[in-house]
């Protein structure tokens, strides 16, 4: 099983400055579940869609079109 989606989740969560605890709370689950997703991958498409929606990115895409540049600019502006 590929861990690509879990790695994407971790990457974008960290870029946004969201903790595993915060993401877990938004998903009504536990931080351990988020940790498992990030380490072992996301197997459920509904979970992938929920995380994508919360983070505002498509976890299955690894392109500039994913909005990473816009996301980084937005986060940087919020931290100013």
Characterise this structure:
- This protein has 80 residues and is an all-alpha fold.
- The protein is 66% helix and 0% strand.
- It has five helices and no strands.
- The protein is globular.
- The protein starts with a helix and ends with a helix.
Strand content: under 5%
Shape: globular
Largest sheet: none
Structure class: mainly alpha
Give the rounded overall mean pLDDT.
84
User: What is the end-to-end distance?
Assistant: 40 Å
State the order of secondary-structure elements, H for helix, E for strand: HHHHH
Enumerate the spans where pLDDT stays under 50 for 5 or more consecutive residues: none
**How many individual β-strands?**
0
Radius of gyration: 12 Å
**What is the overall number of helices?**
5
Share of residues in helices: 55-70%
Give the structure's gist in a few sentences.
Helices cover 66% and strands 0% of the residues.
């Amino acid at each position: 099983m590929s861990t690509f989606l879990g790695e994407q989740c971790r990457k974008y969560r960290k870029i946004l400055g969201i903790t595993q605890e915060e993401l877990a709370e938004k998903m009504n689950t536990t931080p351990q579940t988020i940790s498992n997703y990030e380490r072992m991958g996301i197997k459920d498409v509904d979970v992938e869609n929920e995380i994508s929606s919360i983070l505002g990115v498509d976890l299955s895409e690894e392109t500039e079109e994913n909005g990473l540049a816009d996301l980084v600019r937005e986060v940087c502006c919020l931290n100013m």
